[in-house]
Fold each of these.
Amino acid sequence: MSFFVRARFDVRDEQREEFEELACALRELAEAEPGTLLYRWFSAGAGRYLVLEEYADTAAAMAHQERAAQLLARVGACAEMAFAELHGEIGPGIREWVRDHPQATVYPEWTGDRTPSGSR
């Protein structure tokens, strides 16, 4: 079952050019990954960027994180992640990442039951 990510980044003015180069490099990397189904960036201007990601499963999401580790570290140096929303069932590696990022929220799929499984 696919897994979705929606994350917003706030970028300082003096870092915008570098951030945009990194975002383009991440998109190119993601386009070559068979498990990455969607990877799109959006901007509201004034240094606010949002990325939407869809992966075939959590293994594909983890593979992207591993392949993109150096680029993502550079993103973290020039932008602040305002929030991240993870939609779907997550594995242990992603759950560990969520524990380390208090601005991240997991939304397990809700099928009509009274309580969603694995919610944070």
Amino acid sequence: MSEKINLVCLPFAGGNKYSYRPLFTENSAVFNVITLEYPGRGTRIFEELTSDIDALVNDLFNQLKPILSKGNYAIYGHSLGGLLAYLLAVKIRENSYELPKHIFITGASGPSATSRQTKRFHLYPHKEFIDEVIILGGMPDEILQDNAMLEFLEPILRNDFKVSETYIHKAAEPLNIPFTVITGTDEDLKAEEVLLWQNESIPAVDFIQLEGDHFFIMQHRAFIINAIAEKLTKQLETF
């Protein structure tokens, strides 16, 4: 393989373009990590947040255009990022660009899962909302114990939860893209709703389950990185 593939990463709820640094701690010989940024956080902190999922997908699509023109890319997203990865791929197909070589999803049910709409964490009072964030995991203790930091992050988290919890699925033709979907054994996800990812892909989806809660990815860094590299290497060797 003569050229590295670009792995375009979409952050989880409350995340920014730096959120995957603890996961991708070392350079890969197979892929470059490029993380997109949602408005209202990180390098775009002075922009307004948006809970309009169509506007968010359009924003991501515009960020991705320089990479789309070159092709040779894959997309990865965890949780909210997984849902957005799928919607972004649909948008790419609608605009007749080259599709990603692979879509990697972690910690997310299929986009047609109905339980997503039954959760209304974004409307919870402060204490109950923070309790749910703690249950999900992934939030360092130093942040949970810092009231000023929590006050700063709470509107971002609420916004991102709203994006997911108010999403209504619009059925689309399955994508002719290989999917790999990895979930944790202790996540609050229904197995039958994870399997719904197969409805969105023509090739058979590779479903994998690892020990851990919603942020199992941080306990299985080596596995995740190796799985992505192996899948992409095998795929690119067939071209």
Amino acid sequence: MATKINIKHTESGMVKTGFYGYSWTYLVFGWFVPLFRGELGVGALHLLFTIVTGGIWQIIVSFLYNKQYMTRMLTNGWVLDGSDSDKVLAGTSLGISTHTNN
């Protein structure tokens, strides 16, 4: 099951909810999930791969999607936001360093 954590954009201060862990949402809704999260290009690719693989893609990516999404967000100016323990847990799950200079 996916776990929620807030992410904050470093320049605008905008806050969103990010997720890490298994994505039941992706398993059920498939390529619609990237569309709902504003990733139109990713959604289009996922639709193509779902069609080509006869739906197998959707099963496999449900294990990977949240990590891929969070990695894209964190490399585009977003940072983990929340308690230190939440950041460490999310960072460990995502395979990233949570050290900050604050």
